[in-house]
Amino acid sequence: MxxxxxxxxxxxxxxxxxxxxxxxxxxxxxxxxxxxxxxPGTAEFDVRPGGEVHSFSRSLGDYSCTFTxxxxxxxxxxxxxxxxxxxxxxxxxxxxxxxxxxxxxxxTQFKAEVKxxxxxxxxxxxxxxxxxxxxxxxxxxxxxxxxTTVSHREGKFRFELSKLVVVAKTPRDxx
Length: 175
What we know:
mainly beta, 11 strands, 14% helix, MYDGF, MYDGF factor
């Protein structure tokens, strides 16, 4: 399921996603001390301009998130990626953002890919919330969502990206 298409569905997701992400972030913060590359929580990385394709990945158990991009202009920017799994292991989340709120780089492409789970909700933003500013979502036509990726839409994406949020449903073994 991609981003909800009906207004009421948007309200439900708008309420559910922040709550789920807060729970996942709190759980991630409490999970320190696990093996490198598998610990929940936030990691910093540089988004580098120059037109080359770069990737940054985080794994958490059987799940992983990879952010792949190409950008132009400016200098390196500090970004963050947070991965987490819900307490019942039903959801895997991956959030990628620039803490300062707005990126000054021009993104020629982007893709966030999850492995081990299927995307239930994804949203891309041209500006991330900081201070009194709110998140500003990309127009639905600027990006596309599949079962495992959220990526720019060629010819429609307007080169602005500051945040990606992905919530994916993990496979469940039924008794």
